[in-house]
Amino acid sequence: MTTMIRTTREELQRQRVELLTEVHMTFEELRDRAETYSLSSSELDVWHTIEGIDYLLEGEC
Fold this sequence. Notes:
This protein is an all-alpha fold. It has helices at 9-23, 27-35, 41-59. It contains three helices and no strands. The longest helix has 19 residues, at 41-59.
């Protein structure tokens, strides 16, 4: 049986802010460091999670 996780837009936005706070960077700083391959493994995990959150947020109408 497949498990489905439901979350609200507000929860996703809150999680995004918490992740950026965790790595002490703005989105732009994190993105720029990702583009130059200068993230630690934990920062890279945050980057991939934020990419997923942004994908989900863009898909909502």
